[in-house]
Amino acid sequence: MRVPLVLLILFSFVGLIPNLGAADKSETQIFYLSIINFLALVFLLVTKEVKQFNKDKRFKLPFHIIAFATFTLISIVSIIFSINKVESFRILTFVIIYFLSIFNIHELLKHVDAKKYLINIFLSLIIIELFAVYSQYLFDYFNSGSNVILRSQRYSGITGNVNITSFILVFKMPILFYLILKSNKTYKNIFYSILILLITFLIFEVLITRGAILSILLISLIILLYVIYNKTQISSFKLKLIYILLPIMFVTFFNKVSDSSSNAIERVASITESTDRSTFERKIFWGIGLKEFSKRPLIGNGIGSYKLNSIKSYLPYMNQYIVPYHAHNDYIEILAETGILGFISYFSIFLFFLYVLVSKKTYSTYRNKPPKLFFFLALSIIVFIGDSLINFPFSRPVQFIYLALVINTISVFYLADNTLPQTIKFKNKPKITLLFLILISSGLILSSKRLYSSSKDQYLLLGSFNSSSLNISLDQLEEFGMDYPNIAATTIPLKTLKAISYLKKGKLDSVQTLLHKGQNENPFLPISQTYLGYYHYLKGDIDSSLFYSKIAFDKQPNNPVHFAHYIVGLNSLKDSLKIDSAYHKIVDNFKNYDPIIDKIYTTALAGIIDKDEENNFLSKVEERLFENHDPQTKANIYILKLGFKNARIADSLNKEGNKFFQNKQYDLAARSFSEAAELNPLELPYHENAANAYLQISELDKAIEYADYVIKNSKKQSGKSNYIKALAYYEKGDFFNACEQIKLSYENGFNSSRALISAFCR
Residue 290 and residue 301: Cα distance in Å, rounded? Predict the structure, then answer.
């Protein structure tokens, strides 16, 4: 029938759906799936009752559908313990839509040739996905002189994410293995082999996704062992292995010996290094998940709760509002959210299909027979399991639908003929069941439509928040829904984002109420409290400002926003001691803090203390502060060290000296530069400018003196002062020292020195 085929194609093409203005593509995809599920259920209702395909009027549901239905029910029960039930209902929308998708794809595959459909659709998707990436990559490669940025999101293809693209390609690679071993046409095998080459090259050389690289190597090893130990009677079977392994071996060898910075083997090896940031973070995320699981091991802490509960443990590692959205291990996350019951019901799906693969009955059934697609689809399941160990494919509709296609094809094509171990079957009246599911599906359309609309609003809200722009009108803000969902993908409460937008526009009327509500919806992220502090500061209530901003600062000190809001209140009271204490709480405990902290600190102190007090505050951190390259930070340090008046006069004298120098009034320039250097000895360019000016009027000793000052006090030499010294020594007739200085100048990176080496060093 045409209708089931069309519906299956619509399911399969979920990955081709664009964002359509949403902040998160998964929200668009889940809304799309809710519509396709509704259409599929209506078709099944008509088919079952009018066409009477199932004459006994009973559904026979396989084990994996019953298992996922059980997982769905456990997820519903777990909401009782959720810290944010609205967010749990959001994730539950995904779970139920996944269940309906598995159910519908299973029933639709009964009306088509499931095996033929899966092969054709996966082959088509591989070609589409490769074209989407390579078209952009080759365009950049030839238009940039081969200087492309590896792992760039520009090469993420239809998914918008390089990791997802890598894994969905590897997930479908076993289909190519099967086609090669099955086909006797050389031209077809060459074509399939080229596709394997393109996938492998893309993942090893461009996307460089470590988990995907390991998956390719693993399934290659399995297929090698499969061929070696297979007792097939097809004589050419083992010879076809070259079409599979040669492209993979070639890319691996090329990657190893080439000068490319994409050395995939080294990147894979870095997984075990303690210094690797992604590995370090994953260990933290896994530890947090297991800790949350231990609190309520039976039923979990509520579906969708990990991203919120994890903030408490992850705050010491955060300097912005980037939280662990996922545990980067679906099984640990499911354990934390739905407990051991949810984990068993979900993971049993994979265990069942792997059991079928290795069972004695399977082996005896297919021994001495040509390769069956079943074995190769099992490789796809293994890839998905591996991806789930280090990522979160459960949260990505495109990956879950591909999994649903695979497991349902195995169920319909291989398990229905009674030759393999049987699934548990479940019977009930189809009409009532379908009507009930259609009713649920209608509600899911409304829910997922709201999630999609909110995601579009979040795109604007988060864009405004991150860029500090004011591109959202008050009318737009009023229209944004804040109740479902009530937190953004970043876990920032939507009411808080709305309040921040109001603050930027100077509209303070409802800000306080929104921030308090936002705090209730995510009590672990201190963003609402820090902006409550800023709100009270704008209202002139310094006591309340300090109360809220200090709470936020104490919870997450290594956050520039929290530090700034707290310092603003302390600055109003001219409390330099607490400002200094807050600053040291950050620099003494966080190695990789944001340099803007220095700027906030020095700006605050420069406004409330004079140079006679500075030693009490700068002595411990003076050396490190001078390494900050921010001009404003340095200007504030000069004010603290020299006093505002001296710093300002020195800057004016330097500007004056530059004008004299440009007009070739070198004597006046030398005087201005030397006076600037005397007033501000911390600014080394003043001394270097003075040295250059004195060189022009042949006051060589002074030129050498000022150049020496720069050389002795510079942590990073530029070579320019050595160059000035070399010219001064040469003019004095001291050729030995001139030669030494010109060599040092060149060694320190001053390229103009190179032409003079032969002249000075004869």
Answer: 12
Residue 585 tokens read as 């709480």
- Phi and psi angles of residue 249, each rounded to the nearest 5 degrees, phi first: -65, -40
Q: How many CB atoms lie within 10 A of CB 136?
A: 16
Residue 475 to residue 488: CA distance in whole angstroms: 20
Listed in sequence order, the residues at least 6 apart from 499 whose beta carbon sits closer than 8 Å to its beta carbon are 510, 511, 514, 515, 518, 528, 531, 535
Query: What is the residue-wise DSSP string for 689-715?
Result: HHHHHHHHTT-HHHHHHHHHHHHHH-S
Handedness of CA 576, 577, 578, 580 (dihedral sign): positive
pLDDT in tens, 63-110: 899 999 999 999 999 999 999 999 999 999 999 999 999 999 999 998
Q: What's the pLDDT at 231?
A: 57
Burial bucket for residue 478 (CB in 10 Å: 0-12, 13-18, 19+): exposed
Q: Using the predicted structure, report yes or no on whether residue 613 has a pLDDT greater than 90.
A: no
Residue 171 confidence (pLDDT) above 80: yes
For residue 762, name the pLDDT band (cuts at 50, 70, 90). Answer: low
Q: How confident is the model at residue 285 (pLDDT cuts 50, 70, 90)?
A: very high
Return the exposure string of 365-391: e unless at least 16 CB atoms fall within 10 Å of the residue's CB, then b.
Answer: bbeeeebbbbbbbbbbbbbbbbbbebb
> 487 by DSSP, 3-state: which?
strand
Q: What single-letter DSSP state applies at residue 574?
A: T
DSSP tag of 316: G
Q: Would you state the pLDDT for residue 373?
A: 83
- In this prediction, residue 492 carries a pLDDT of 92
> What 8-state DSSP symbol labels residue 416?
T
Please give the DSSP secondary-structure letter assigned to residue 410: I
d(C-alpha 398, C-alpha 132), whole Å = 16
* Contact predicate 243/304, CB 8 Å: no
